[in-house]
Write a structure and sequence with these properties.
Length: about 210
């Protein structure tokens, strides 16, 4: 419980979610239970180094940035991520967790903003979702759908209606990079008058899409 396998720690702007454009320290953990077809961080499946929570906190402090994002991989795959988040909150960081939706978020410390993916059919992982997670989301959290095609769009739209997601927390529609034209997604959203926010991955516009540590 006192250490995590960490893939990388770096400072950049947030390229996704409603925190887009804000400076963050990124803590990317290793390991993931999912294998999404469009995953852009496959290098985090296995690559990494064991680090103590105290060492991770020291690395984060060196950046002098008040916002910290835990991402992966899948941070919740390692129970020590909960302790890391708790200690970050105690140090008055704004803490955001990106999670893939397959693992239970019930024990995520209060005060952590959860950005939770709900996987669509093109990912190949839509059957792996932990649906009870929706009940744990608050207005401070966010749900993200990564969409690769029209089937994904219809799937996400139906889930929004079934679970009344727009009334629970912000809902984000993100076109899968290189697979769905953002302009096409915007046309669909406007035609259906959906209460969602359409976002592209800003870091892939600023830097080469394959560049790490940004």
């Amino acid at each position: 419980m006192n250490q995590l396998k960490i893939n990388e720690i770096f400072a950049s702007i947030n390229g996704e979610s409603t925190y887009i454009g804000l400076p963050f320290v990124f803590v990317r953990t290793s390991g993931c239970p999912l294998r999404c077809s469009w995953c852009d961080t496959r290098y985090a499946y296995d690559e990494g180094e064991d680090k103590s929570i105290s060492d991770i906190l020291r690395e984060i402090e060196e950046f002098s940035i008040p916002n910290v994002l835990l991402t992966g991989g899948e941070p919740l795959l390692q129970p020590a991520s909960l302790e890391l988040m708790s200690q970050l909150l105690e140090r008055d960081y704004q803490v955001v967790l990106e999670t893939g939706g397959a693992l239970n978020i019930a024990d995520v410390p209060g005060g952590v903003a959860v950005v939770m993916d709900l996987k669509c059919p093109s990912s190949g992982m839509s059957e792996r979702m932990h649906w009870d997670n929706i009940e744990h989301l608050t207005e401070d959290d966010q749900i993200k759908f990564v969409l690769a095609d029209a089937r994904d769009y219809e799937y996400a739209k139906n889930l929004m209606m079934r679970y009344k997601l727009a009334g629970r927390c912000p809902v984000l529609f993100q076109p899968a990079f290189g697979l769905l034209n953002p302009a096409t997604l915007v046309r669909w959203i406007l035609a259906d008058r959906l209460d969602v926010r359409c976002l592209i991955q800003q870091h892939k516009v600023i830097w080469p899409p394959e560049q790490r540590g940004v």
